[in-house]
Amino acid sequence: MFLDVSTEIVPRTPPPRLPVEATRLALPAPLGRGPSFARGLWRIAAADVSSGNRVQLLRDGSATFAAMLELIDGARESVSLEGYIFRGDDVGQRFAAALRAAAARGVVVRLLVDWVGRMGTPRSFFDQISAGGVNVRIFNPPSLTTRWLGLVPRDHRKLLVVDATAGVTGGIGIGNEWRTGVLKRRRSPWRDTAVRIDGPAAHDMRQAFDHMWQRALGRDRRGKHRYLRRKAHGSHLDPSTDAPALVGIIEGEPGRFRVARALQLQAVSAERSIWIASAYFVPSYSEIESLNGAARDGVDVRILVPSRYDHPWIRLLTQRFYRRLLMNGVRIWEWKGEMMHAKTAVTDGRWIRVGSTDFNPLGLAVNFELDAVIEDPTVGAEAEAMFEADLGQSREIRAGEYRGDDDS
Length: 408
Known about the structure:
This protein is an alpha+beta fold.
């Protein structure tokens, strides 16, 4: 049998070509442009989110102390104060008097202080507060019968909640360093940031305090209750339709890396800018890659760190990462004042983080921390203005200044 070569061979018709736009993968909306803000915080950080909150940024110790004392003085039902540092100095005495006065009015007052953070303050100081009707607990004192001998983890959180209706959190401890500084010469108040929140998020802050209070009482142990299903709260909220401000409360716990994942979520969602202030900036390689990747993709990434530290050796660790960040387009500033102690971030001028977590292994993976994450363009504009004012009192670092660090 022969092949009939006269048979017409009809070429196969290729499929129609789609426009380039139709072949692109549909990506989820960035945070702050839909319900992904609340849903993302829940899924990566187990953070309950609420809407309809009133948020006020507080700059430095004096303004923060005034706001906190005003809340304590006006408390009617409960005061819950948690702090890593609680000095017995002038500031500490003012707070001790306010707590005792609230207890005398019949308010239920609880004070939770970390054992390491309160070192230098005599136990008799807290005994006097307790004698005034305040329920005082010291978190995780050293013990031969506790895990890691009680040395870690620490309660590094800073939190005040009053009547479950208003709260203050941030990086500010109870001590004179946030009011007058501690240096003998060129003394200045420590630069820090806190936030006052009025509204439903205060209930989440109260719940966060209760979690730590149970731990301090020894009633929260790793066991079956950790595997109980916890329902998402507020994950459906949409900032385009729900009343601002949307606020999520992130409880950092040992081994959870919740704020670290939130940073990576920022890097993924940012379209314009990521501005970070961190007192003790010792990031992991994954966090560095997130920031470098955003900078290489055209995002304005800025980092503000101290130039003077209360722990001088930390600066050597921080500087190891300068060149790797600078060569990828990240810009770095060092604060000129006594100590820049803030732990904040603002992304695209609408997503703000204020809390106790620094980008280092202790903050992200070891200690108990607390951060408020806020979605509100009005508060975001204020946070950006505050950050730019800080840069005006800082020195920008250039890539050529650091050539000897590890580039691996």
